[in-house]
Design a protein that fits this description.
It is a single chain. The chain has 292 residues and is an alpha/beta fold. The protein has a single domain, classed as Aldolase class I (TIM Barrel, Alpha-Beta Barrel). It has eight helices and twelve strands. Strands 3, 4, 5, 6, 7, 8, 9, 10, 11 and 12 form a ten-stranded mixed β-sheet that branches. The chain has a two-stranded antiparallel sheet with strand order 1-2. Helix 2 crosses helix 3 and helix 7 packs parallel to helix 8. The radius of gyration is 18 Å and the shape is globular. The relative contact order is 0.15. The model has no long low-confidence stretch (mean pLDDT 93). It binds iron/sulfur cluster. Iron/sulfur cluster binds next to loops.
Length: 292
Amino acid sequence: MLCNICPRGCNINRETNVGYCGINDKIEISKVMLHYGEEPFLTKDNKPSGAIFFAGCNLKCVYCQNYEISNSRGKQISVETLVSLYKQLEDAGASNIDLVTPTHFSNLIIESLKIYKPKIPVIFNCGGYESIETIKNLLNYVDVFLFDFKYFDDKYAIKYSKAPNYFEIASKAITLATKAKPNIFSDGQMIQGVVIRHLCIPTLTEDSKHVLEYIANNFGKDTYISLMSQFTPTVNTNNFPEINRKLKPIEYKVVLNYAIKLGLNHVLIQDLSSSGEEMIPDFKHDNHIFKY
Ligand code: SF4
């Protein structure tokens, strides 16, 4: 079958080729861990997320914090092993199954969830560059969609993520998911719904304001938004001097004040001190061993 899982539309046979995401037809994972960094309303009683970090990505963001894994080779596993990881993470006390950068494995993830649906919420933690068809296919299997909504202006999407038409594509995908998955909470944990993450990027405050305005006007003021300040320069931002620094407090404040002005009711604010490498998941120091 030719792969058109995401808007890149590579239309290639992944049994014999790799497309833009760099991954063939086998599930490939870089890391499995109990992860404490996700939004608090996605977890229960301060328990960690059960994070499965997939290798490869259909975006190429120059500031990617998961660059270490999204651009490296992982370990190939079967659908059955993925199922076993769901069970291991549940047994280890995870409060959700957090599928990180899962887009290019959507078909195999659906296969795994047909075999076993965890009792804890399954989160599709993606970059927002998603095809409508794929989101439709996932609706019956995924509980929470955690979308990045990175850019309003296409010139930034092309420049920093090599993702033409990002805004149009992401806004359609989020629209579909928000209509199909109204938010449901149990004991303070979102067990179904949509969360939008927006990372504030140095110098792009106007673009951030446009994104928030779109959210307020189209998805409603009760949308759950995670407004992130943790932008961290990477080796790949060296070629982009205008963003090759941490976010200034004033930049975050301007965007945050605009969110307040728009009347957005559920904006998760990040401490500006988190703007640093300490927010990059520590892939090397996790003591819990999962078998795969
Ligand atoms: S999932 Fe990968 S191979 Fe398939 S269309 Fe997207 S980038 Fe191309």
